[in-house]
Amino acid sequence: MTTLTTPPRTAPPPAGPRTPSGVDKWRRRIPLLPALIFTIVVTQLPFVATLVISTFRWNILRPGERHFTGLSNYTFVFTDERLRTAVLNTVVLTASVVLISVLLGLGLAVLLDRRFPGRGLARTMLIAPFLVMPVAASLLWKHAIYNPDYGLLNGTLNTLYRFFGADHGPTVDWVSTYPMPAVVVSLVWQWTPFMMLIILAGLQAQPGDVLEAARVDGASAMATFRHITLPHLRQYLELGILLGTIYVVQTFDAVYTITQGGPGSRTTNLPYEIYLTMFRKYEYGEAAAAGVVVVLGSIVIATFALRTIASLFRQEVSR
Amino acid sequence: MTARLTPLWTFVAWLATLAFFAPVAWMVLTSFHQEADAATNPPSPLAPFTFDQYETLFSRDITPFLLNSAMASVISTLLVLALAVPAAYALSIKPVEKWTDVMFFFLSTKFLPAIAALLPVYLIVKDAGMLDNVWTLIVLYTAMNLPIAVWMMRSFLAEVPKEILEAAEVDGANLLTVLWRVVAPIALPGLAATSLICFIFSWNEFMFAVNLTATQASTAPVFLVGFITNEGLFLARLCAAATLVSLPVLIAGFAAQDKLVRGLSLGAVK
C-alpha cells in the first residue's frame, strides 16, 4: 500500500522553538554547503557562460572573427526558419508523447489497481520499457521493429496477411513514411510505464472509506470514477504531465538514433537542432542563443511544475 | 479491500501488458539467434538458440565500454550520496533557515535543459584537456543526480520521528549514537533506493557521453550507436548488445520497484 500526503493540518511547519544563535546557524549550514557549492559551480556557471557566448559572433571554422555582436544572435534565432520548425516539432513531439502516455498510463493504472491473477508479474513486465536503455530502445525500434524488410511490424503484418490467404503483406517503410509518429510511438512506449507508476500510486492512496461509502450509497463504478477518483487523481496527473514534459522536451537520444532529425528537418527538435548548430555548423554564438531561448521556455514550464510539487510538498511538511 | 477484475478485463490487462513487453521479449529472443534467423520475414521466433552473439560482443571489445559505464555510474553515485546525505540532514533533521528555498533551488537546476549547458561544458572541458576522460562524465553525472538525491533523501530523513531525536538529545546521547541508532535504520532503505535511481540515470545517459568522449572514455550507449555505423547492421548482435547494456538497469529497476515512483517524482509521491 502506498501512501501520499495526508490532508494538510493547521500545524505550522516544524521550526525550532527558539531562534538559533549565529554559531548554531552556521553549524547547521555546514553539512549543506558542499552540495550547494558543487551544484552552483557545475550547473549555474555554464549558464552564465552560455549567456556570454550568446552575445558573440563565433564560428570556430573562422578563427579570429570572434567578436561581440549584442543581441543579433537572438534576432537570428527568432527569425530562422529551421529554428522555428524545431520549436514546432518540439511542441508536437512533447505534447503527443506526454498526452498519449498519460492516457495509456491511466488506463493501465486503473487495471493494475484491481486484483487479478499475475498482477505482480504484469506490473514488473510493464516497467521494463522504461528501464531499457533509451539508446538501446531507439535502436531496437528503428532496426528490429520498423525495418521495412525484416522488422517485427511488417513481419507480423506479413504473417497475418498470409494467414488470411494473401500472398504478401504490405512493405511499409515506417520511419521514412511516418517519421514523427515513429519517434512518438517509441517514446510513448518508454514513458507510459512512468505515467502508470505515478497514477497507480495516486489510485492506491485513495481513502478506502470514501469509495466504500460511494458503493454503499449505490453510486455506479463510472460515477465513482468521475466524481471521486478523477478529482483525487488530479494532482498526480498534473505531476506526471509536468515531469513528463520536462523530460520529453529534452529528448535527444531517440531523434539522434531513429531519424537524425530527418527526413529534411521534419523531426528535428530543439535539442537536436542546437546539437547540429554546435557540432555540424560550428556556430557557437547561435547555438548559445538558442540554448538561452530553450532555458527561458523551460522556466515557464518549470514554474508550473514547481507550483504543483510545492503544493504536494507543503501537504507533506505540514503533517 | 481491493476490488477484483472480471475475467474479460483480466484478459485486457494481460493483452496490454504483453503488447508493452513484446519489444523487450523480441530483443532478448533475437539476441539468442543467428543473424540469418534474426532478419527474416515472416519472423522466425522458434529458430535455434545460440550464444554466438554474446561471444562475439566480448571478443569485439565491449568490455572497456562497460567498464567506463560502470566506473562513471558507480563513482558518481557514491559522490552524489556523499554530498546529498549531509545536505538532506541539514534540510530535514536539523533544518537550516529557509530550507524550503534551498530545496527548490536544487529542484530548479533539474529543470534546466542539459543541452543548453553542453556548449560551455564542452568548451571548458576542452580547455582543461579533459575531453575523453571518464572523470568529466563523473562530475557531470554527479551534478545531474544531486538534486534528485537531495529530494529523495530528505523525504526519507523526514520520516525519522522528531520525538525520538529530541528524547535522545535530552538524555545526552551524542550525535554519532543518534545517527547510528535512530537515523540509520530509517534512512538505509532510502539510501539504497536513492543510489539505484542515480545509478540508472547515469548508466543510461547519452548526450554528454557521445559529445564529450571519443575513444578512451566512451560508455555503453556510445558503443551501441558506434556499433551500427562501424559494422553495418547485424540485427542479432545489436539485440545482444542492447540486452547486455540494459541488463544492469533492468535488475536495479526491478529491485527498486517499490521505490521507483518515489525517486522519479523526486520524493513527491510515495
TrEMBL record, chain A:
<feature type="transmembrane region" description="Helical">
    <location>
        <begin position="35"/>
        <end position="56"/>
    </location>
</feature>
<keyword id="KW-0812">Transmembrane</keyword>
<feature type="transmembrane region" description="Helical">
    <location>
        <begin position="182"/>
        <end position="203"/>
    </location>
</feature>
<feature type="transmembrane region" description="Helical">
    <location>
        <begin position="236"/>
        <end position="258"/>
    </location>
</feature>
<feature type="domain" description="ABC transmembrane type-1">
    <location>
        <begin position="87"/>
        <end position="305"/>
    </location>
</feature>
<feature type="region of interest" description="Disordered">
    <location>
        <begin position="1"/>
        <end position="22"/>
    </location>
</feature>
<dbReference type="GO" id="GO:0005886">
    <property type="term" value="C:plasma membrane"/>
</dbReference>
<comment type="similarity">
    <text>Belongs to the binding-protein-dependent transport system permease family.</text>
</comment>
<dbReference type="GO" id="GO:0055085">
    <property type="term" value="P:transmembrane transport"/>
</dbReference>
<feature type="transmembrane region" description="Helical">
    <location>
        <begin position="86"/>
        <end position="112"/>
    </location>
</feature>
<dbReference type="InterPro" id="IPR035906">
    <property type="entry name" value="MetI-like_sf"/>
</dbReference>
<protein>
    <submittedName>
        <fullName>Sugar ABC transporter permease</fullName>
    </submittedName>
</protein>
<keyword id="KW-1003">Cell membrane</keyword>
<keyword id="KW-1133">Transmembrane helix</keyword>
<dbReference type="Pfam" id="PF00528">
    <property type="entry name" value="BPD_transp_1"/>
</dbReference>
<feature type="transmembrane region" description="Helical">
    <location>
        <begin position="287"/>
        <end position="310"/>
    </location>
</feature>
<feature type="transmembrane region" description="Helical">
    <location>
        <begin position="124"/>
        <end position="141"/>
    </location>
</feature>
<dbReference type="InterPro" id="IPR000515">
    <property type="entry name" value="MetI-like"/>
</dbReference>
<keyword id="KW-0813">Transport</keyword>
<keyword id="KW-0472">Membrane</keyword>
From TrEMBL, chain B:
<dbReference type="GO" id="GO:0005886">
    <property type="term" value="C:plasma membrane"/>
</dbReference>
<protein>
    <submittedName>
        <fullName>Carbohydrate ABC transporter permease</fullName>
    </submittedName>
</protein>
<keyword id="KW-0812">Transmembrane</keyword>
<feature type="transmembrane region" description="Helical">
    <location>
        <begin position="178"/>
        <end position="202"/>
    </location>
</feature>
<dbReference type="InterPro" id="IPR000515">
    <property type="entry name" value="MetI-like"/>
</dbReference>
<feature type="transmembrane region" description="Helical">
    <location>
        <begin position="137"/>
        <end position="157"/>
    </location>
</feature>
<feature type="transmembrane region" description="Helical">
    <location>
        <begin position="235"/>
        <end position="256"/>
    </location>
</feature>
<feature type="domain" description="ABC transmembrane type-1">
    <location>
        <begin position="66"/>
        <end position="256"/>
    </location>
</feature>
<dbReference type="InterPro" id="IPR035906">
    <property type="entry name" value="MetI-like_sf"/>
</dbReference>
<feature type="transmembrane region" description="Helical">
    <location>
        <begin position="103"/>
        <end position="125"/>
    </location>
</feature>
<feature type="transmembrane region" description="Helical">
    <location>
        <begin position="208"/>
        <end position="228"/>
    </location>
</feature>
<dbReference type="GO" id="GO:0055085">
    <property type="term" value="P:transmembrane transport"/>
</dbReference>
<comment type="similarity">
    <text>Belongs to the binding-protein-dependent transport system permease family.</text>
</comment>
<keyword id="KW-1133">Transmembrane helix</keyword>
<dbReference type="Pfam" id="PF00528">
    <property type="entry name" value="BPD_transp_1"/>
</dbReference>
<keyword id="KW-1003">Cell membrane</keyword>
<feature type="transmembrane region" description="Helical">
    <location>
        <begin position="62"/>
        <end position="91"/>
    </location>
</feature>
<keyword id="KW-0813">Transport</keyword>
<keyword id="KW-0472">Membrane</keyword>
<dbReference type="InterPro" id="IPR050901">
    <property type="entry name" value="BP-dep_ABC_trans_perm"/>
</dbReference>
